[in-house]
C-alpha cells in the first residue's frame, strides 16, 4: 500500500474516538467534521423551524436562517483567530478572563436589555451579547488553572475544595439576579465534575453537592415562576394551556415524529403552536420532522464530541499537561450536560430551562462561545501532537 493510500484509509471507531487518527497530521480533523456537521444540521433546522414566525414578524421567512448563517460565519472567523492562541496564554490570563466575565455579568445588570422578565443581553449597536455565555467559558478556564496551582490542596483538605466554590458563588449570585438558573446549574455540575476528576475526596464532593442540590431546590420552590415550571413538568397535561403549554406542544411534536418523522418542513408544531421553536425547542421540531432517527443522529454526534473531549483530557493529564487536561474535561462535561438538559427539557425528562443545544440552536453568543470551546479542544490536541512529534524527532536525532 502506498503512503497516499495509507493516508486515505478511513479510521476505525477506536481511532476516531482517540488521538490516533492520522498520527502524522498536526491536528485531529474529526473535531472539524463534527463541528461542521452540527453547524449544517443546525442551519437546516433553524431555517425549517423559524420560517412561520419570521414571516409574521419580519415578512421574510429566511430572516432567522440568514442571521444564523452569519453567526456561523462569524464563529468560524473568530475560531481561526482563537486557534492561533497557545494554551499557555489561556493559562496565564485565566484570572483576567474571569474578571472580564464577572464584569460582563455586572454590566448586563446595569445596562442590559430585558426580554421576558430576564436581563441577560448587552446590546452594542447591531451586536447582542448574552453575558452568561463567555462567563461560563472563562470560569472553566480559571478553574482549570486553579486546579493546576492548587491540585494537592484540593485533594488534601476542604480549604482547597471550597476556594473555587466561593468564586462560583459570586458568579451564581450575579446570574440569579438576571435571573438565569439554567446557566447556574450547568456551571454547578461542571464545577463539581471537574473537582471530582481532579481528585477531590468523595465525602467532600457528596456533602457539598448535597448542599448545592438543596439550595437549587429551594431556589425553585420559593420562586413562583420556577415552581410553576416544575409542577408543569411533572404533569403538563393538568394545565395544558397554561403552565404546561410549551411542554405539551413539544411532546406532541415528539409523538408525531415517531421513528422516521414527517419529513423536512412538515412540522405542524412550528406553525407558532410551539414557543421558541427555533431556539430552546429546536430539537422538538427535529423530532417531529426526522423522528427517532434524527434525534439519534444528533445524539451520536454530540456523544462522540463529548467522548473525544474527555479522552483528550485524560490523555493530556497523562502527558502531565494538567491545565490542558482539566480544560478539556470541563468542556466535555459542559457540552454533555447542556445537551442533556436541552434534549431532556424538550422531551419532558427535566424541567424546562433556557439552554441552547450546543452548535445547533439559534443564538449568536452561544454559537460563538461553543465554537471557541471546540477550537480550544482542537488547539489542545494540536499542541500535544506537536510535542509528541518534537520528542520523536529529538529521539531520532540522538540515535
Key traits:
72% helix, three-stranded antiparallel β-sheet, mainly alpha, globular, disordered N terminus, 399 residues, 15 helices, 3 strands
Question: Layout of helices and strands, plus pairs?
Answer:
Blueprint: H1 3-8, H2 13-17, H3 29-58, H4 63-82, H5 87-92, H6 94-111, E1 113-115, E2 118-124, E3 127-130, H7 132-156, H8 158-177, H9 181-197, H10 202-221, H11 224-234, H12 245-257, H13 282-318, H14 322-346, H15 364-398
Antiparallel strand pairs: 1-2, 2-3
Verbal overview:
The chain has helices at residues 3-8, 13-17, 29-58, 63-82, 87-92, 94-111, 132-156, 158-177, 181-197, 202-221, 224-234, 245-257, 282-318, 322-346, 364-398; strands at 113-115, 118-124, 127-130. Mean pLDDT is 84; it is low at 1-8. The protein is mainly α and 399 residues long. It is globular. A three-stranded antiparallel β-sheet has the order 1-2-3. The two termini are 28 Å apart.
Nutshell version of this structure?
The protein contains 15 helices and three strands. It is mainly alpha-helical and 399 residues long.
Oligomer: single chain
Major sheet: size, sense and barrel closure?
A: 3 strands, antiparallel
Q: Uncertain spans, ≥5 residues at pLDDT below 50?
A: 1-8
Arithmetic mean pLDDT: 84
- Which word captures the global form? globular
Amino acid at each position: 500500500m502506498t503512503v497516499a493510500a495509507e493516508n486515505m484509509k478511513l479510521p476505525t471507531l477506536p481511532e476516531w474516538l482517540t488521538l490516533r487518527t492520522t498520527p502524522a497530521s498536526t491536528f485531529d480533523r474529526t473535531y472539524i467534521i463534527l463541528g461542521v456537521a452540527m453547524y449544517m444540521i443546525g442551519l437546516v433546522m433553524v431555517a425549517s423551524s423559524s420560517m412561520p414566525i419570521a414571516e409574521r414578524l419580519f415578512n421574510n421567512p429566511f430572516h432567522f436562517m440568514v442571521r444564523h448563517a452569519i453567526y456561523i460565519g462569524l464563529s468560524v472567523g473568530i475560531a481561526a483567530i482563537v486557534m492561533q492562541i497557545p494554551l499557555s496564554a489561556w493559562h496565564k490570563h485565566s484570572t483576567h478572563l474571569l474578571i472580564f466575565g464577572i464584569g460582563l455579568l455586572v454590566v448586563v445588570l446595569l445596562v442590559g436589555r430585558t426580554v421576558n422578565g430576564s436581563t441577560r443581553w448587552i446590546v452594542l449597536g447591531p451586536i447582542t451579547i448574552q453575558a452568561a455565555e463567555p462567563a461560563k467559558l472563562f470560569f472553566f478556564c480559571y478553574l482549570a488553572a486553579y486546579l493546576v496551582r492548587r491540585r494537592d490542596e484540593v485533594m488534601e483538605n476542604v480549604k482547597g475544595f471550597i476556594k473555587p466554590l466561593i468564586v462560583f458563588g459570586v458568579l451564581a449570585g450575579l446570574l440569579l439576579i438576571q435571573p438565569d438558573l439554567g446557566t447556574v446549574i450547568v456551571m454547578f455540575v461542571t464545577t463539581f465534575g471537574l473537582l471530582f476528576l481532579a481528585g477531590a475526596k468523595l465525602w467532600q464532593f457528596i456533602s457539598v453537592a448535597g448542599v448545592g442540590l438543596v439550595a437549587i431546590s429551594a431556589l425553585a420552590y420559593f420562586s413562583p415562576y420556577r415552581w410553576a415550571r416544575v409542577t408543569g413538568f411533572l404533569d403538563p397535561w393538568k394545565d395544558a394551556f397554561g403552565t404546561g403549554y410549551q411542554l405539551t406542544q413539544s411532546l406532541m411534536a415528539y409523538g408525531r415524529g415517531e421513528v422516521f418523522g414527517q419529513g423536512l418542513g412538515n412540522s405542524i408544531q412550528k406553525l407558532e403552536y410551539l414557543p421558541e421553536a427555533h431556539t430552546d425547542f429546536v430539537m422538538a421540531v427535529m423530532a417531529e420532522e426526522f423522528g427517532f432517527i434524527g434525534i439519534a443522529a444528533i445524539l451520536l454526534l454530540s456523544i462522540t464530541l463529548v467522548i473525544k473531549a474527555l479522552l483528550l483530557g485524560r490523555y493530556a493529564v497523562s502527558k502531565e499537561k494538567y491545565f490542558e487536561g482539566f480544560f478539556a474535561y470541563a468542556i466535555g462535561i459542559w457540552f454533555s450536560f447542556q445537551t442533556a438538559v436541552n434534549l431532556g427539557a424538550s422531551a419532558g425528562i427535566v424541567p424546562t430551562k433556557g439552554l441552547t443545544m450546543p452548535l445547533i440552536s439559534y443564538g449568536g453568543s452561544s454559537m460563538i462561545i461553543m465554537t471557541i470551546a471546540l477550537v480550544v479542544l482542537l488547539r489542545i490536541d494540536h499542541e500535544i501532537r506537536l510535542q509528541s512529534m518534537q520528542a520523536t524527532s529529538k529521539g531520532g536525532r540522538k540515535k
